[in-house]
Amino acid sequence: MIEFNGSPLLDGQVAVVTGAGQGMGREIAIGLAAAGAKVMVADVNMQTTEETAALISQQGGSAWPVLWDVSDPDQAEQVAARVHELAGDASILVNNAGIHRRGQFGEEGHFGTWREVMAVNLDGIMYGITAFLDQLKRTKGNIINLASIQSFTAAPNFTTAYAASKGGVAMMTKSLAVDLAQHGVRVNAIAPGFIETPQTAVSRANPDRVAFVMSHTPMKRAGRADEMAGPAVFLASHLASFVTGVILPVDGGFLTL
Fold first, then answer.
1. pTM of the full predicted structure?
2. For 102-119, how does the pLDDT look when each residue is reduced to its tens digit (9 = 90+)?
3. Which residues, in sequence order, are CB contacts of 9 under 8 Å at separation 6+?
4. Which CATH superfamily is domain 3-197+225-242 in?
5. Is 127 assigned a catalytic role?
6. Which of 162, 194, 234, 254 does the annotation list as catalytic?
7. Alpha-carbon torsion (247, 251, 255, 256), positive or negative
């Protein structure tokens, strides 16, 4: 249990985490539950979603699995209603779900890739925030978006769509932080670097790609998915009560070089 002054840091909070069936989303959900939050675990894959919820339950936490394709605005509204029914108003929304498609601009099919990536990485966040906004206003809660080091810098063999979507996440975070501050809602983002997740498996298997990333990473290693949990818990907690509009790199120092 993650505590502060003898009490669970997120005691009584209701959290929703998208893309929580694996990787960073799973570890963030586990971390929020370990800090005392009740967690709605959402993903497009119900089997992995249930596995995450089971892991949380085995560790003494409270979690419910729910199927959610974030690119569908109707599903966002349905999930928001389900959360309210099961646990009350959400006070933490973690928009972690995202996809990555490799390729070069101008390749055949790149318009379809653009639409697919934007529908999940950018539109999906807006749908989720819109669906939960009334709840978050009532709880004076907070939103954590998953940006990327690609929000700040381009990389070879990453689609323009991915970098553009993550740049959009960063600016959406800042803009919403300004707009929602009057309602007591904080909005921040985490910008992961090179993290050991299923999504980076292809890159991690490429020696040239690994060498490039390590040459820009002072800590000289990839990050672990569970290293996203601490920053998420901090941003979701009262310890970050005066923090909003921040894009927090968790990248081993990649953006410093």
1. 0.96
2. 766 767 767 899 999 999
3. 2, 3, 35, 36, 233, 237, 238, 239
4. NAD(P)-binding Rossmann-like Domain (3.40.50.720)
5. no
6. 162
7. positive
